[in-house]
Amino acid sequence: MVTCVKYTSAMLLLRRCHSLTRFGPFNTQRHQVTPAVFVSGAAAVRMGVLRAHGPRWRHGLAGLLAGTGAVLAYGLHHHKAEQQDSSTVQTIEKTSAFPIISQEEVTTHRSLEHGVWVTYKGGVYDITEFVAMHPGGDKILLAAGGALEPFWALYAVHNQEHVLEMLSEYKVGELSAEDVKKQKAIKTSDPYSTDPERHPALHINSLKPFNAEPPPELLSDSFITPSAIFFKRNHLPVPQVDEASYQLHIEGLPGGVLTLSLEELKTRFPKHTITATLQCAGNRRSEMNMVKQVKGLNWGIAAISNATWGGRGSGTCCWPLWAFHVQFEGLDKDVTGTTYGASIPLNKAVNEEGDVLLAYEMNGQDIPPDHGYPVRAVVPGTVGARNVKWLGKIIVSAEESSSHWQQNDYKGFSPGTDWDTVDFKSAPAIQELPIQSAITVPTDGAVVDRSSEEVTVKGYAWSGGGREVVRVDVSLDGGKTWQVAQMRSSEKGQAPGPSPPPGRAWAWKLWEVTAPLPAEAQELEIVCKAVDNSYNMQPDTVPPIWNLRGVLSNAWHRVKVEIREDDNEE
Amino acid sequence: MVTCVKYTSAMLLLRRCHSLTRFGPFNTQRHQVTPAVFVSGAAAVRMGVLRAHGPRWRHGLAGLLAGTGAVLAYGLHHHKAEQQDSSTVQTIEKTSAFPIISQEEVTTHRSLEHGVWVTYKGGVYDITEFVAMHPGGDKILLAAGGALEPFWALYAVHNQEHVLEMLSEYKVGELSAEDVKKQKAIKTSDPYSTDPERHPALHINSLKPFNAEPPPELLSDSFITPSAIFFKRNHLPVPQVDEASYQLHIEGLPGGVLTLSLEELKTRFPKHTITATLQCAGNRRSEMNMVKQVKGLNWGIAAISNATWGGRGSGTCCWPLWAFHVQFEGLDKDVTGTTYGASIPLNKAVNEEGDVLLAYEMNGQDIPPDHGYPVRAVVPGTVGARNVKWLGKIIVSAEESSSHWQQNDYKGFSPGTDWDTVDFKSAPAIQELPIQSAITVPTDGAVVDRSSEEVTVKGYAWSGGGREVVRVDVSLDGGKTWQVAQMRSSEKGQAPGPSPPPGRAWAWKLWEVTAPLPAEAQELEIVCKAVDNSYNMQPDTVPPIWNLRGVLSNAWHRVKVEIREDDNEE
């Protein structure tokens, strides 16, 4: 039954509509149902018509059930993940007169042809029609004929009221008491129980998998981000890797599979060190959410950080002529054994000027568990998603990675493209990122006293592809007039290092400007925009770059600050 | 005397102010004078105050006298160069009682220390204070102590009323009749008399040097732009090069100077062929002029074209370790013998994937005179200015080219930077260009009949640095809603070639979209914006990217079209 706490009348209407269209518990030709959150009382009256136009609602439906890697941020208030242990989540209906179905019967429905059934907490659900809408693609079929619990334990984001509401719409029966007992006997352990402890300063966007960003004002305090507050972006549980038995397998080279121990990786090749900024494709997604709901973690401006990485350069091997891509596979895996994966173009990997590292050090120490211990790929200038952590395998290949994250995620689309029309094959996998900058100080809504007479604005700026940031413009009046910020590429008070060679500017720049408070202004709209040495600029506004996955959010960053008049002078 | 036909009252006021501050004809400590075009009647009353703030007016002054390479486009109506043969230009004042000065006396004033005097058509001018404002820098000193005519013959843009008006302000005397006679005996020949004939379809922005662009609707007709209408951007007269005696000198290599004849260049190295788009840094400058006056040719949207180039690859040589730049010198030179010059980073030149060519063919034929016959540099993905034509010398160097065009031109600045505050050293020379697109059909102001029911929009899209254009978004409603255009990378009806390898997409894409006319609209604001595979986007609007040289104009392109209702239906 579709329900929504805030829309009781809509709920009742939907309940009626629902009963009108239900043909029976075993009917596998189910109809799509409008999510209640999209339905006003009046609109719900037209439900019969709307039902005939299922695709119109796919966006809404798909937004409620997130798939592998496509983690849901439903509603603007979910800035911090609302964690609910799965044992405390209750399904809505407990007493409805659904037929009793055996696990044996459920098991026969594990394909689109025979219907796709799943169980959850004693309920049986026919999700056949939802498969096509699942953002994670047909990976959802892995749960077919069985229980959802082990999958949802992996992707804790499913444990939300909205998701359960949607699921309830697909209910077709109750699992037999005997089978429920059997299921409970199979204890579902929490795969995240071995995740490391994290720094309390982090703003958590999702706990399982763990995704968190540092407070902006901390971010711009250090040119090199301390590892503890370096933004964390995990797709799966942190794998437990034993240093002694760790092996890195490299496939696709002329001599067959090459296997290296950690010791060999560290001692057989010279160590290279680079300072490189990593940024999540979804950094600043929250600004897109303010325009129109997108799918993905509701990142603020701090899904970006800068570190010094040490490891073996990847540009020293010989590579076969037929190869065009280098695929990376992580050791982090889901319940089906599928590992995280991504690939980069071969010419980035083999070009010594590409500075790709098989890194085992971060900021002078072993790479911490959250950042890929013991070895990760560092692909400077390239979106975080290709910097594969807990690296288990490298495959030199004629093809891109076939992983979900390479093929059906981390791509950009036109603002006019929605989940009904999107063709993931039509867009290239994000590699190099565009020019980016943001204001870390002051934060939006801050108050500045008139008596301070001036305001100091701080932030970061970075561009992908090794393009150096050459200028940051700052405006206090919403973009009408601009001044040029001072930039630095070292810790405060330290001399900057030598300029990077052309095309190898991997590290961000921090910037700062102090300006007098405009005499007449009561509020400042502070804006920043950066320009790189290809003279690419940030777009002015968010709506024209809005995209359904909320990636590549790099419009001018805007912060409003109130000027409080000095009481003594009034 | 500052005068302006349109501001007679201002002229009279200025004349008064001028007499108040003139200390004598031989006073080398001259004051800057506000150009009349900036002065309203009321404002001119404050002239005494304004005079004390010389720098405030430098922008205006500098805008009136263009230097080497910084060709002036004063006023929006100067879309086509208003050519005046120098013999017909008259100085304003003929009968004033200035002292008679000998050429010998003039000759003693050829430095900032002793004053900088020049003669022009029998007048003597003390331009000491103007030297610092000359956009071409101290190159103006080359004329010190002598006649301006030979320089102005080279840069015909000086032959404009405004320039003469400004010059007259600096008048300090009349050249003796005897010396005038001697000067006339030295015939100043027109260095442009041997320039080639050009295609009549070209829109001419400046005749001497020749700068012209094709009509937009022709531009998008062909994937490969025919050489005859390929945009022309000359800084100097087209040099006459004898094929038999042509030599290319390459300096800075370990073995000393290498000299190659055209025959050797063509036969001793394999010929490489690439299709690459070239774009002038000033393409679409006219849109910046509409925001606020900039300096430079008033290019429309067609200072960009695409050709197939054949020649020797530059990536096959050996290069010394100390080198970081490759300088190119043209055979085109000014009266002082200074040649056009520019440089590119060494890693672009030596990387085989950089595809830099020493090109001797354009579209399958010898390179035409206007495009660099017999040999030019083709530096794909890089601003036109570095694709040096009539290539005479290559210098492998630790330093960038010291030329005006590398150091003090072709750089981008903040909108808040003006000619008083600009520090050319603070910005990098433009190399790779940012993402660009424009609408070629329909043109601004076109009329579409309602009965046609739909509108077809065409254009081009390209990005620098070998970044492939992956999408063009088109809006008919000023940017509120967007659709994705169809792109092609071959002539219409022909199969596209293979996709370029990553980072080597040198050619533009042409795009097209046909959409129904919105039922209620009376006017369409058609907008396009492109995105490259680094997901860089074009900025929304022009003012925030405005810069004093009017380069890098790549905001969304906007075209307004009127829908004419069908009379029969009214």
Automatic annotation (TrEMBL), chains A, B:
It catalyses: sulfite + O2 + H2O = sulfate + H2O2. Its cofactor is Mo-molybdopterin; heme b. Pathway: Energy metabolism; sulfur metabolism; Sulfur metabolism. It is found in: Mitochondrion intermembrane space. Residues 98-176 form the Cytochrome b5 heme-binding domain. Its EC number is 1.8.3.1. Its main location: mitochondrion. The lineage of its organism: Eukaryota, Metazoa, Chordata, Craniata, Vertebrata. Catalyzes the oxidation of sulfite to sulfate, the terminal reaction in the oxidative degradation of sulfur-containing amino acids. Signal peptide: none annotated. One of its GO terms (cellular component) is mitochondrial intermembrane space. InterPro entries: Cyt_B5-like_heme/steroid-bd (IPR001199), Cyt_B5-like_heme/steroid_sf (IPR036400), Cyt_B5_heme-BS (IPR018506), Ig_E-set (IPR014756), MoCF_OxRdtse_dimer (IPR005066), Mopterin_OxRdtase_euk (IPR008335), OxRdtase_Mopterin-bd_dom (IPR000572), OxRdtase_Mopterin-bd_sf (IPR036374). SUPFAM superfamilies: Cytochrome b5-like heme/steroid binding domain, E set domains, Oxidoreductase molybdopterin-binding domain. GO terms for biological process: nervous system development; sulfur compound metabolic process. Transmembrane segments: none annotated. CDD domains: eukary_SO_Moco. This is Sulfite oxidase. Pfam families: Cyt-b5, Mo-co_dimer, Oxidored_molyb. It comes from the Eukaryota. GO terms for molecular function: heme binding; molybdenum ion binding; molybdopterin cofactor binding; sulfite oxidase activity. It comes from Dissostichus mawsoni (Antarctic cod). It is an enzyme of class 1 (oxidoreductase). Keywords: Heme, Iron, Metal-binding, Mitochondrion, Molybdenum, Oxidoreductase.
